[in-house]
Amino acid sequence: MTQPPVPARRVLLAAPRGYCAGVDRAVIAVERALEQYGAPIYVRHEIVHNKYVVRTLEKKGAIFVETTAEVPEGSIMMFSAHGVAPQVHAEAAERGLATIDATCPLVTKVHKEAVRYAKEDYDILLIGHEGHEEVIGTSGEAPDHITLVDGPDDVAGISVRDESKVVWLSQTTLSVDETMETVDALRKKFPQLLSPPGDDICYATQNRQTAVKELASQAELVIVVGSTNSSNSVRMVEVALQAGAPAAHLVDHADELDEIWLQGVRTVGLTSGASVPDVLVDGVLKWFAERGYGDVETVRTADESITFSLPKELRRDLRAEAAEQPRRTA
Fold first, then answer.
1. C-alpha 141: how far from its chain's center?
2. What pairing do the DSSP bridges indicate for beta strands 146-149 and 166-170?
3. 49: phi > 0 → left, psi -120 to 50 → alpha, else beta; which?
4. pTM for this predicted structure
5. What strands, in cross-sheet order, belong to the sheet with 123-127?
């Protein structure tokens, strides 16, 4: 009797994946600043949450710092795509630093919403992960009005001054499903809870989570390329598992892949976080091709055409401006 053909091994490649408009803008901003002003360019925190991108920019002359105090007076400092609190702007001015603001415009939108609702004396419930740079920056816009809600389990302990004046905002890189679960729990406790005028979850985060759900429905194994400190990449692994993928793993690059994961796997789903350049995905595709997964099929769930203009500071002479800034006296 003729045996049925063995199904071909294949890779389903998500589209969209990788760089979003905000990340692309931030990375190009660092490269343009280095070309325009020369090294070093200081960057407060990682410009985006990807180890490969950070190392590449370091080789070109970017210096990543955790605090403003680490930056020599009179230097140029860039703010990362995740944004910073007003206090950081004040610290930079105090040290006579010229600054380039590479905050993602979608994060800036959330900052402006926080300022607006604080002026209207609302209690603001910020859904996000404690310690994430974006949450720290947004909270700094209105610290007396913002309460962090780190998931549905936090809701029981939340209190507000006036239940008729409470609004929720969100970190842009969360899981859409998890965020709405938290919102639902908040609304049960505060029926008059106001929603922000626009969706706070980044369009790219939503699109990549939709794509990974589609992969999860067809693949025995889902690989997400991204760094462990990338919130949107970590969420994608969680979304894949919740959507029914038998297995899902987060890797920074091909060297972290494990052949043990391939046991019984005919279809692999592959995607990448919003901070991941395609060169890393290409390396993973090559790894799979070398192991018989040479058939690559693109699974497209959305088209992205959004772009953001570069920071306005790159159209000025920041070195000259820095030289003219008064130095802090001891």
1. 19
2. unpaired
3. beta
4. 0.89
5. 146-149, 123-127, 166-170
pLDDT for 116 beyond 90:
yes
Residue 96, φ and ψ in degrees, nearest 5: 70, 35
Between CA 226 and CA 256 the distance in angstroms is: 11
DSSP string, 66-109: SSGGGSPTT-EEEE-TT---HHHHHHHHHTT-EEEE---HHHHH
Structure tokens at 259: 């052949």
More confident residue, 232 or 5: 232
Strands 98-101 and 76-79: parallel
Pick left, alpha or beta for residue 122 (phi over 0 → left; psi -120 to 50 → alpha; otherwise beta). Answer: beta
What is the reported pLDDT for 321? Answer: 63
Known catalytic residues are: 134
Confidence of residue 176 (pLDDT cuts 50, 70, 90): confident
Amino acid at 301: T
Residues 6+ apart with CB under 8 A from 143: none
Mean of pLDDT values over 83-101: 96
C-alpha span between 93 and 95 (Å, rounded) = 5
The fraction of the chain above a pLDDT of 70, given in percent, is 94
Helix (H) or strand (E) holding 147: strand 146-149
- How many Å apart are CA 101 and CA 92, to the nearest integer? 12
